[in-house]
């Protein structure tokens, strides 16, 4: 789904979301009653230091207003930008700063909801979609940690063998279904039904601790993570 | 209580194993491991790739004392799968950080990682996100989370992003902090953009000295446990909870960095702009001479991280 298709479907009552390069900023009303702040990264763009800082600055401005309301983050990105410039500047700090800002917003009462409607990968995925309290996706979204050809090169396994292995486990191969099974995606929306209603239902649910480990265990994609984390937590609390 | 042999504090941090680093860093015999190798909590996925598993999945976590102060501590083993984050490896750190937030306990993280373990890429990526969330929650609760970077595998990929979420970073010359590794950039963008075999260039771009000079790390220490221990003890004495004003200060700090150095093509350009007297000779300078050159010239994060 394209960026210009999704906005009217989310905000039938209108919105003020505007493009700023490959980024999106503005607000809209879900249904007729629930105003939300909106930001996004679009067009499969890679996320470099400058854009990560712009997104984080927007989140900190929203926190500074002191009127917490839901923050909807729309995501169709590539990976982090891979360049000499970005590494010289310390891109890891810019991505971390963005992730911290989104997590702080959630803690300050802004319900952070990511909506993955295109791609996202690697460090950009961590700093945007995965930093939201709840991550939703539309069918056709295509998140990835690394594509299979690159993975074949690094693991020195033929791509045919990786494809076969991907049929028996969701733990390494790219794709929405695989990431949902590990617990990364809380819910995949029904593209036919009203999108605003489905997001409003999520906003209405209580939030609490990070439950992605439990989701991964229930869905079979991460058999051990939740149990191991809980055992360590118990041992450290003894 | 797992007693570790007391290790020579002058051993190279770069060369040491995770367990040797812990033994040399912490108070004598103060370390108690959680879910140690005798529990054989191994990766459920590496077998699929016919790869050997390790009984601690490449990370050691537990409680200890440092200068008699109680801490939680974790050390990655760069010699096993490049210290990469897999499902179990990541979950051990997540659990430790969650407990830290609940019990207001400071945490010391010994990084040595290439990033996500590709054989379990989705689980590793998600583990990194869970770790980041647990760090932020612990820091909001008031804990210090101190990162030590000087291992063989560096601190790459998602590990670099985790480091950027710590309250304080201590680095040695051998330490590298980066999100996209040299080979990854070269593969994606070509050798003209990034020559991964030019080791001097790699170190000028992401090495410990450069990171310290631009405020990407708070302390620069010698490549041994004495240096890391003294800096960690000093860092534990400070307290900097994560707040809106800390992130607002970081926003200014990172914007200022792009303004000042955004046109630079090489670390040497950055160091020249900083006013370093001998930027070309800087990679070869010994610790004391380097710290003297950096003094009053480097960008200092001053807690804005």
TrEMBL record, chain A:
The lineage of its organism: Bacteria, Pseudomonadati, Pseudomonadota, Alphaproteobacteria, Acetobacterales. Pfam families: MdcE (PF06833). This is Biotin-independent malonate decarboxylase subunit gamma.
From TrEMBL, chain B:
The keyword Transferase applies. GO terms for molecular function: acetyl-CoA carboxylase activity; carboxy-lyase activity; transferase activity. Keywords: Transferase. It comes from the Bacteria. One of its GO terms (biological process) is fatty acid biosynthetic process. Gene3D superfamilies: 2-enoyl-CoA Hydratase, Chain A, domain 1 (3.90.226.10). Pfam families: Carboxyl_trans. NCBIfam families: malonate_beta (TIGR03133), PRK07189.1 (NF005530). It comes from Acidisoma silvae. Residues 1-244 form the CoA carboxyltransferase N-terminal domain. This is Biotin-independent malonate decarboxylase subunit beta.
């Amino acid at each position: 789904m394209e960026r210009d298709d999704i906005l009217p479907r989310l905000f039938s009552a209108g919105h003020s979301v505007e493009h700023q390069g490959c980024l999106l900023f503005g607000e809209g009303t879900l249904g007729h009653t629930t105003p939300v702040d909106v930001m996004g990264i679009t067009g499969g763009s890679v996320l470099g230091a400058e854009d990560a800082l712009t997104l984080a600055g927007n989140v900190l401005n929203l926190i500074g207003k002191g009127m917490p309301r839901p923050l909807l983050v729309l995501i169709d990105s590539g990976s982090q930008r891979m360049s000499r410039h970005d590494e010289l500047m310390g891109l890891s700090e810019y991505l971390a700063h963005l992730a911290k800002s989104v997590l702080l917003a959630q803690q300050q009462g802004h319900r952070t909801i990511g909506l993955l409607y295109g791609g996202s990968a690697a460090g950009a995925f961590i700093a945007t979609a995965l930093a939201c309290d709840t991550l939703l996706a539309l069918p056709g979204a295509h998140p990835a940690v690394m594509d299979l050809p690159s993975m074949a090169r690094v693991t020195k396994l033929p791509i045919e063998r990786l494809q076969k292995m991907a049929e028996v486990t969701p733990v390494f191969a790219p794709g929405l279904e695989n990431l949902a099974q590990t617990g990364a995606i809380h819910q995949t929306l029904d593209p036919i039904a009203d999108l605003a209603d489905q997001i409003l239902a999520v906003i209405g649910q209580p939030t609490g601790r990070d439950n992605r480990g439990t989701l991964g265990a229930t869905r079979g994609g991460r058999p051990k993570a939740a149990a191991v984390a809980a055992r360590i937590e118990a041992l450290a609390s003894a | 209580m797992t007693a570790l042999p007391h290790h020579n504090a002058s051993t190279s941090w770069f060369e040491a194993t995770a367990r040797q680093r812990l033994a040399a860093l912490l108070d004598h015999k103060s370390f108690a491991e959680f879910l140690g190798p005798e529990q054989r909590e191994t990766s459920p996925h590496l077998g699929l790739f016919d790869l050997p598993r390790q009984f601690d999945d490449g990370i050691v976590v537990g409680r200890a004392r440092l200068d008699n102060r109680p801490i939680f501590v974790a050390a990655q083993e760069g010699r096993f799968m490049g210290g990469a984050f897999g499902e179990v490896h990541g979950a051990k750190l997540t659990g430790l950080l969650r407990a830290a937030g609940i019990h207001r306990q400071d945490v010391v993280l010994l990084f040595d990682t290439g990033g996500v373990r590709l054989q379990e890429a989705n689980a590793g990526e998600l583990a990194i996100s869970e770790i980041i969330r647990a760090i932020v929650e612990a820091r909001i609760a008031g804990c210090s989370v101190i990162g030590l970077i000087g291992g063989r595998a560096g601190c790459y990929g998602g590990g670099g992003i985790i480091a950027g979420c710590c309250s304080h970073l201590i680095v040695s010359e051998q330490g590298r902090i980066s999100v996209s590794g040299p080979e990854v950039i070269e593969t994606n963008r070509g050798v003209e953009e990034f020559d991964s075999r030019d080791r001097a260039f790699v170190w000028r771009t992401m090495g410990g000295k450069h990171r310290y000079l631009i405020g990407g790390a708070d302390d620069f220490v010698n490549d041994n446990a004495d240096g890391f221990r003294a800096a960690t003890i000093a860092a534990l004495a400070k307290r900097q909870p994560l707040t809106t004003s800390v992130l607002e200060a970081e926003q200014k700090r990172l914007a200022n960095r792009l303004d000042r150095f955004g046109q630079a093509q090489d670390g040497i350009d950055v160091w020249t702009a900083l006013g370093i007297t001998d930027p070309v000779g800087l990679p070869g300078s010994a610790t004391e001479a380097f710290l003297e050159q950096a003094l009053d010239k480097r960008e200092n994060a001053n807690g804005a991280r």
